[in-house]
Sequence to fold (1066 residues):
Amino acid sequence: MQIQEVPRSTSAPPVTHVSSDSLFSRLSGIILSIWRAMTLNKKVTVGCAIVGFFIAVGCFGPLITPYNPNATSHLFITPPSATHWLGTTVVGEDIFSQLIYGTRTSVFWGLATALIVTVLSVLVGLVGGYFSGLTDDSLTLVTNVSLVLPALPLAIVLAAYFPRGSLTISMVIIITSWAWQARVLRSQTLSLRSREFVTAARVGGEHAWRIILFEIFPNEISLVVAGFVSTTIFIILAWAALEYLGLGDGTIPSWGSMLYWAQQAGALGGGLWWWFIPPGLCIATFGAGLALINFGVDEVAGPGCALSGQSRRRKQGKR
Amino acid sequence: MNDLAVQLDESSAEYHQGPILEGVHLRKLFPISSLNLSATKPAVHAVEDTSLSLYPGRALALVGESGSGKTTVARILAGLYSPTSGIVRFRGEPAKLADKSYLQTYRRNVQLVLQDPFSSLNPVHDVRYILARPLRIFNHAQNKHQETEQILSLLNRVNLSPAEQFIQKYPHQLSGGQKQRVSIARALAVRPEVLLADEPVSMLDVSIRLDILNLLLRLKDEERLALLFITHDIASARYFAEDTLVMYAGQMVEGGPSDEVIQRPKHPYTQLLISAAPNPDNLHAQSDEEVTDFIARGEIPSLIHPPGGCRFHPRCPHAMPVCSQRFPTRTELGGGHWTNCFLFGDSNK
Amino acid sequence: MGTNVNAHVQTDTLLDVKNLVVDYLASSGTVHAVTDVNFTLKRGEILGLAGESGSGKSTLAYAITCLLRPPAIISGGEILYFPRTSQDGRDNSRVTITRLSKTGKSKHAKGEGEQSIEETKPIDLLQLSPAQLRDLRWNDLAIVFQSAMNALNPVMTVGSQIMDVLRTHRPDMGSDTRKKRAQELFQLVGIAPDRLRSYPHELSGGMRQRAIIAIALALSPEILIMDEPTTALDVVVQREILTEIIRLREKLGFAVIFITHDLSLLLELADHVAIMYAGRIVEKASRRDLYLHPRHPYSYGLLNSFPSLHGPRRKMAGIPGSPPDLRSVPPGCAFHLRCPLAIEVCHEVLPSLLAMKGEKSEQLVACHLYDPVYNMEPPTTLDLARKYEALAEESNAG
Fold:
């Protein structure tokens, strides 16, 4: 067999070369490659900007909010004005402050939960895929069972059963959403396991856990990142849905609980648009930002990319 | 020019020392999962009753087509598969390959070079990492400084120079030949006594194959490595190895000193294999209407339900009734040359 | 149609490739994958193209069939195809030619002259429209790819895949005739016709390759281009397929362009062999000339990269270094960095493909050593051998 090596024609830039000498150069190399990844594609750049903005608001926003989000006042149901940028609620809370604090809760819990889900699915997927036999069989069984269970209804039941609170919602979402990605990673691991570099590592005396972590896992990073991003979208939406249904802790402001209270107060029917539109818009924008990242990465990494649209493309015959 | 002949004499001393690694009556079945719960489970009969010995400073070529079980034999010897029956002997002692700590010391001595250099190096690691791992695992390097030094000397040994440049390259920055050299360096880093090379050059460009073969030959001589060279190209077996073993569909059919086996093949399959090999020297004799008296009759049979007896009998021009009943025992032809074929006798008769 | 063609216009030439250049457009600049390639293919000839990875041999095959896709483009040259006139008595290709000449080559000959005269004119494949090319591809020019064995559709029987090709390209053929033709083709390549009902996975690798050849031959093409057709097969099967190709060529008279990295195969199979290096043909000769006295140091090195089955066992040396990266081909002769005989001028001046002075042989070589301007005494094969042997000794020592 022969491998066609040379006309590696696509425009993919070579991987940034990192000399392993000092920590500093290594770090700057990593930052550089992250920067490259972010500016690779317009969609990725826009998505990263949106997500970055929300994270920044979540981190630093509460430092600049004019009011305590839970402080009531006598200004009931005022439309947006110079003092209350997004108006007030029926009990006189400042909606802008609530939104800032809500962003912190929603983004923080969303990302943290997504992280746990991803870690869990990576563990199950890699371990199940690498070790065949009983380990794999039992993990596959558990994965398949939780795949079959309807996620949102189960989450509602579970959330109603356990004491209300962010932790409960987080747990419920973790239980219902890890399986999908675990399955994807398992099949990827199965195919990577049969690659020769894994065989070479085994013959070289590497331990199983080292093979999983240092040989197989690095080759799945892009898949894991993509999975993390789409899991985050799902979690933000599920979270808002559960809170909107009143299964969250209503005392802590978040996008979902704001919608819950707005709905409780009949904001929709009463025309109090400044109450329910901002959190809804936040959810939509944040989700769109994440989705853009995923689409962009897909475009760059996927086949049939960039050059396909170029001129003089001769139509191909049957074969 | 006559080095090879001289080497033969030199190494014959080692020959009497006894083999360093032996496979004795190795047999391997790969069960196939099937929905049919009744009766016996179907299995791929990959290797049947194969015995071979490797000596320090000598190379044994294992020749066969795809599906002949040659790779399975290498993987059994490398401790990747456990044989269904039969044993592996290392330095005369049965190797307890199921024992994890024994396996680690076994791997310290027996290393494998894989066929495909394009997938045998992990794309995410650089050359330094790839070579540093075995050094660290087997405690050959105590500190970073020693490690770098040893990696550089390994790279020089496989003719990758300047080594300082190669140490920080990633696999995608290397050509096919360079990748295979790194693979060989990785196996050497363990400091093995036995090197199993599974088609080490078949994926490489023609012009660099000889370089890699010569490199392995040099290592064999300089470091007294015992080499198992697996190949489908019988001509390179003759070039590379003192001894040759021919396998067909999981069975050993012929073996002995390479020149004997290749110049005077006895088993019909070996004859077929040799007549099929591209041979430009034919040009001397042939006119344009050549096309030799070449009979092939089909291909390697399915190993799930292999033909009984000698598995070559459906394709064999000399097949006899007995060939389909049982597998012939070994017939010694003198000078270490032997074959498993009823045409040359059967000691059970 | 066209039975009154003048016989004398008929030449032996089937395909004439002139100064063909194929480029890959990359962000880092243009890469010349094939540069200034010239060759002619005669009717019924087997032309071997040998080269290593990156030598441009596969790109050339794709270029001839106009199957290149961006970023690869043909940026220069001509590929002239001389269709067989109907006088030769084969009616299969007649349909295409007339159709082609009607629509294709009529630019400068519009409305003037007889159709039949036009037919003898060569067709430049690069000027054809995609539809004409599609027509041409199966009818006159078929290609078998390296991975062709796996190109069969796994959910269709091989028989229906052959008949599909016939249905598309011979819509006038009845279903019975089609079936008969398919059986005929299978018999031709040595598979029992009842295997037409088999699915690809039920056939062995060699049978699948035969089936692919049967499909390629379905419309009796004039040219069969085979890109490493046997690389994925075992030696014994490879031998069978090669024997089959030789047999079919004799029977049907098509011409073959056989592309492989295995020069020793070509020496048995091909009438003429062209050796490519870094996108250029460096030597072109009949197989006998090439075997007996390879001229280019690269050809010699390639020939001697194969250990032989007979004769004394001796230490051999491969060609040092590795094939060049087409993105950075060295100046002058691309081979000079690996060449044991390189002289000063090789570093700067690009050699062109020439016959040796005062020699009538068709052996062409692109090497300054044979050009009296640079080197008065051209090396003999023995000189080449000696230099490579010295190299072997060196590597033996080091």
